[in-house]
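Figure 2 data, in text form.
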Amino acid sequence: MSDPQPQLRRVLGLPDLSLFLVAALVNLNSVPVVAGVGPSALLFWLLGFTLFFIPQSIAVLELSNRYPSEGGIYIWSKKAFGDFHGFMSGWCYWTNNIFYIPTLLFYIVGFGVFIAGSATTGLGDNPLFMVVVSLALLWIITGLNILGLGVGKWIQNLGAIGTFAITVLILVIGVISFRIRGMANPVNGSTLFPAFTDWRSLSLLSVVCLNYVGLELGSVLGDEIKEPRRNIPRAALIAGIATVTMYLLTTAALQAALPAKEIGVIDGILQAVNHVAASINLPWILAPIALLMSMNAAGNASAWLAGSARIPFVIGLDNYLPAALGRIHPRYSTPHVSLVIQGLASSLFIILNAIGASVHEMYMSLLQTTVVLQLIPYLYMFAALVRVRSKREPESAQAGFFRKTWICYGAGVLGLVVTTGGLGLAFVPSSGVSDAVWFELKIVLGSLSFIIPALIIFWWRNRRSRPAVVPQVGVAPD
């Protein structure tokens, strides 16, 4: 008698899933990038939440309720538009994290050097140091996730807890700064709207959209969630409220403590903390805040690494990528091959992108290329929402989360418009970029270097004989 095939395990309940989504959604390390435009940043966060996050929530709730299995956004695009579009959506979703995860690792290292004090802070500007330590962190996180979500989830959980803690601390520091010196960036009619007349500042709206993506990540892990149809909507509500609240509070506190022009790209929050701490004789507070910020980035990196690796795993089961990617570890019940490939790809990009680039240029190039590749699957997701909801089959209608069709249509159309706008704005260089032409060329070439291979791979794999029945993901009982 042959040994039973390894199966995925349902290990994420409502608390774990809620913390997982908070860890994935709330990247406080990117707040300084947006806060640098001044008080307009507050409106940016509100606009992003209203015009992008809410439509995203509607799409995720509707589509995950119809198709709750492993694969999430890849499965939704495939069901709505066929294998090719499903593959392209899944490919872009996966490969964008090859860019995004290194930015989070740079954050961890950037904050980590502050923990040891002034003797090591200069290392944050050393590309070689950033690369070596980032690679070490990448493989530690990868290894823990190979051991299973039951182990890896604690990185996300601790990251989310650290995020709540750092939000409270930053808010307290902002209030202290306000009481001592007043608002560093006064919020009024003349300061809220100037950024909306500057195209370079408007490009940050694409970054805001990027910071609101991730709600669909829970559905990517559909076969590893307990009672997914029940827990995904509840976790989405909890994570959504927590996300917009923390972005607004931390941005407001940062605006109170430090003039916008002095907010750095990577260590802006720590700059604000250090600035206020010195004035109130609390220099010791910098180290614990740096530690909490590192926890936030680590939870974010672990959530995206774990989630995005499930996409090539499911595509491997469909045989559009090598079947080895669809293997499940016999002991740990995780897609270990897919996780290793994710780690190798991110490692290669960290090394290549460090050649001849400053830390600031490395970060901005990573960030904007991530925006492009991340938003392409969202175009598919919003289009799939409209397409799937338009179907009149009784079975499809019964599976819908929302009774009113116009809700899904409205969310789908609005989401498509905003996502398209965000995609276009990603190519507008920010004011911190010295060579705009080279910056845009790097984004275009970087994106095409991943999209063109996807076309070739799909064409080649599609010509080969594929099984008539796609193997299903094995899922162990709860």
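Caption note: Residues 467-471 have pLDDT under 50 and may be disordered.
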